[in-house]
Amino acid sequence: MTRDPEFFSYDNGVPRNRLGLDDAEAFSLIERDLTYTRTLEVKNGTAPEATRSGQFDLEHLRAIHRHIFQDVYEWAGTTRNQTMTIEGQQVRAAPLIYKDDGRVPVPFVPSQQVDRSLNRTLDQLREQNLLRDLPRSEFADRAAVVFSEINSAHPFMEGNGRTQREFMTQLAGQAGHLLNFDVVSAERMSVVSLEARMGDMSGMQRLFQEISDPGRVAALEMAQGFLEREQVDWQDLYIATATPGRAYNADIAIISRDVVVTRSESDVIVAQTSDLNGQTEGRVRFTASEYPSPAQDGEVQQRSRQLDWDV
Hints:
Elements: E1 2-3, H1 24-44, H2 58-69, E2 84-86, E3 89-91, H3 114-127, H4 136-153, H5 160-174, H6 186-197, H7 202-211, H8 214-229, E4 239-241, E5 247-255, E6 259-264, E7 267-272, E8 283-287
Parallel strand pairs: 1-3, 4-7
Antiparallel strand pairs: 2-3, 5-6, 5-8, 6-7
């Protein structure tokens, strides 16, 4: 007998788990510790070969999810298209799921079509030679499309963000590029993911242009550090770097020798202080310039943030 989708969670909404925890706060803390350790195993090569097979097919994606979440969910590695085993019971996902965050409720791919949708996306990816031999900017635009299509399929009931992030980081690495998702705020990811599901890829492509550019990543890391010291939760902000060549009219919030944090309409824009031509306060007009590589000042220290963008 297959149980109804409601059996997936306890009455308070916490997903049923191997830990037997139904307290949301306790579950969140322990789940993040366990999955963080497993994610490091994927990154350092001690996880099973399937998690870094280089095939970039559906089984590769499932293997990453299975390893990261094996200590938390019985059904780790099982997509919404398949029957999940939970506490010995067979459970099917609801036909349609949404992200419940108060935004426009745009559904993800219907559960019964998840595997088909993913196979189509990943087949096309391999037909494109896994995005190899592309200049960074072109890689970023194409990778943004791949990420958005995987996200729209929303293959797993929980843990999509961490799985997609590792999958895309591996994809970038074999193509000779870097992706740093750590500088992407939860608010920004939610907004651009929704826009992508509604057919507008511009925000997601801008995001990938930034996280594949070490100079822009360094600027975001510095700005986010300043905001943290001011006890501002930048995860709740749409925070992005100024686009080279674009003119801005914004208010200075925080300024340092290297970067300036400004407010432009509803967004937080990070720019290079050198673009302000000596302006240090108030409202400023400037045109953003290209970002220099941070290599001249040594390697940028990446901060590992335990985020899950179920977006």
